[in-house]
Amino acid sequence: MKVLQAITVTAVVLALGTLALVGASRVYGFQRTADWGYQPEQSNEKAEFAWSRLSFNSSMASYGGGGYGRFGYGRGASWMRDYPKADRQFLIAMKRLTRIQGRATEQIVNLDSDDIYNYPWVYAVQVQTWSFNEDEAKRLRQYLLKGGFLMVDDFHGSVDWENFMSGMRMVFPDRAVEDLTNKDEIFHVLYDLDDRFQVPGEQYIRTGRTYEKDGFVPKWRAIRDDKGRVMVAICFNMHLGDAWEWADDPDYPETFASMAFREGLNYVVYGMTH
Amino acid sequence: MFEFFFRYPLASFLKGRFVLLGRWPGWVLVLLMVAAAGGLGWLIWAKRGDAAPKLRTWRAGVIWGLEAALVVLVLLLLWEPAMTVAELSSQQNIIAVVVDDSRSMAIADSGSDGKAAREVAAVKSLQDGVLVGLKKRFQVRVYRLDHGVARLDTAAGDGLAQIAATGTATRIGVGLRELAAETSDLPVGAVVLLSDGGENSDGGLGNIDRETMNVLRNRRWPVHTVGFGKERATKDIEVEEINVAAHAMADSRMAATVRFQQRGYAGQKATLVVKDGDKALVSREVTLAGDGAMQTETLFFHAGTAGARSFAFQVLPLVGEKNLKNNAVTRPVVVSDEKRRILYVEGEPRWEYKFIRRAEDDDKTVQVASMLRTTENKIYRQGISDPKELESGFPVRPEDLFQYQGIILGSVEAGYFTASQQELLREFVDRRGGGVLFLGGRFSLADGGWAGSSVTDLFPTVLPPGRSTFHREAATAELTATGADSPVVRLVDDPVKNVDRWKKLTYMSDYQDAGAPKAGATVLAELKTSGRKMPLLVTQSYGRGRTAVMATSGTWRWQMSEALGDTAHDLFWQQLLRWVVGETPGRVVAGSSVSEAGQTLTDDGKVRLTASVRGIDYLPAADAKVEAHLLGPEGLSTTVEMTPAGDVPGNFVADWTAEKNGAYLAEVTADGGGKELGRDVVAFQRQDGVAENFHTEQNRAMLEKLAADTGGRYWKPEDLGRLPREISYSEAGISIRDTKELWNLPAVFLLLLILMTADWLLRRKWGVV
Lengths: 274, 769
Description:
A: alpha/beta, Rossmann fold, 7-stranded mixed sheet, B: Rossmann fold, 9-stranded mixed sheet
């Protein structure tokens, strides 16, 4: 009897788990992870520009795919989405297409120490999961007000937006979030990007959808400093990181990858000039 | 006493010529003197064996000296010595008595009690018998002196009651020249000048000009000077000189050096203040140096908004100070809000570029137009005035490049510029007078191939060989001694705290070996890395302009790693870039003849306006039409045409007189070919009477020199009683040459007696007699 009970419970749990997984793939999209083949090497190379990926504590670790350790490097933490292949493929493109002297490998930065001030350009993904304590929020605020630049990417839909903003409000309680327009310099600093479109994640290969969740319309938004310069560039309802990561996949459309690279390069050059 | 022994006044000996009246020639006298002295010497030497033992030593020499002197003196008297001296003929000559009537003579530090006004003491000394004594032998004319001389009305008395110490200047040189002109056909035998010596022409240097000295020598006038006033003030602080730029950029940090000295307050604290009207811009406490020592302090203050300003530099009065009017000096400064433009050429996107641009965003008077090579084929332009600006890259025509006042060259190779562009870069500094700042970087300085370029002399350092001078290693910065006094690197007003602030600045992310500074270059800051030091910020003048090297691209860490709100990074770059463009001249550069005197006319309104005019290519515009529009007190508004100076093409001058006390503004405009070439403004001020408040101690050195150079004598007031007699020894006016015998002077007989007595006494003492 006890054996039967155990088998029954196990079957129910497995059934529910399968249902949950199927539901999640429909709602959130299923995220493949590119096989980089080895653990990322940390580099001591010295260069002008270091692609800096922000690691942060996730308030909803399982929501974004898990994660363990506060800023652990274990695969699966939400801030690690597309890491490190997206970063490195972007750096390859940056080296080919610009005169920026960039490091070949990325740099992980966090808000636990002042080391972040050595990296005036920071990229963050899955920011709907981020959460800050007071010290972290203060450090990020000071970083941005001193001249640092933050690009956020890969979060979709209204729920993600609210979660993103709950963290952002700890950093800037009163600063407005604005929609960027074609007139904004960030779309012309390197490439003229008047004709932008939604860049989907890798799930597009299987689903044919350019959106995830209810993020049907891509939004290029920003938080500006007192002089109108973009401090936080918000790439909402799009997944540029995935486009960089899967740019070498023959199934992933080149147009998406190209747009993602151009947008990313514009954001980097803007961050290095404004 | 002197005349008791020598029968005649000392002045007659000083002025007389020694002669021998005897019939026999002088060489016979000399021969006899030598023979007598020699004979005596031989005699004593020959007889020394018979002399007493004591006399065989040096004592024999003493005896010989005394006896030889006795014989020589007697021989001299036989030749009838005398002196001839020129002496003014009685009642045929005029003595000009000149009394300083300037305001400094009202200072009460003279007389027997030291409390009488100088002019009162001067008048009293004349009235105490000097005038009467002079009038017994000469005609006397009394003059008052301030801006010039004016003869006193002697219709009722001696006229000295008209001396009231009210003159607003002391122009001794001018006065003596006027006196010479007025009495050109009169026999003036001598001049008596009663003054404190407070000559305040020549910028207050207290010297008598060469022209006046020539006039006095031509007239052979002995000038007898009588000094009044204390030679050393007991308690006083006096501002001697202010060195501050005549032009400044709006909201810029200005530096002024204040030179002052004090007496009676050595080691005490005093407060230096800079004021704009009633508003104190900055104040600093200083410790006063020793009595009479010249002390120099540098003050930094903000120029404020645009306009013609008059800044007052003051040492706040201390307790017991009597003369408070010499504690402050004002200087006019033209503060301009004209936008200065810098062309920043950057060869690659980098953080230094971003943060320099951000720093300049807060500077309203400096605009940075930049061209950044983002890719091999793209140039990203920022800060441009119109879409066509820099459209074709770095300018190739002078008129395009010369629109900028400064250039920054970032991480960009020399090879990026063509040979003609490099030459244009040199012309930008040399001819146009612009500033060029070279930054460190991967493609900068030696690593950018600049050492082998045609413009290597633009660098203030000798660039090292090789192309591996740029290092992405941490380096800290610290000021040199020169940098500690420079406004360019002043982050904190207090000089000591400023040096400390630099030491505490966070490290820079990289550095570059810029090489050794060239001769004439100035190292303002050094970098420290791995125990080594090398130049960080080096400046130099080049032609009409200036260049500098900042051997790093890592100061952006000052902005990111210092506390939020820390101004060090932005302030440094704003000040450095203002230095780059601040002195860059326009096509018209206005000036005035009083620029070296702090743009201040003292008691004389004559001013020469100058203008250097250049064409659109910054070559001299000799055919320009140049005018100066002057604004002054009481609504004065006039236009003066300026004419070519003749010495240098493109230089123009106009002589003008500022009639009234107050501030003046001259706007110089130049037109060429029907188009305005440019305009510039110069400010100056006329301050009558202010000079009398300075250098109020008696300038005895000048009075003594004037007397000595003219054959006169410096007198103290208490010695004036002898003046009427001694003044007669002069070759000016109508004089006769008198011969005075000297053989019968009591001093001669006394000397004979002394020699004989001494000889006798010594011989007796040493056992000869």
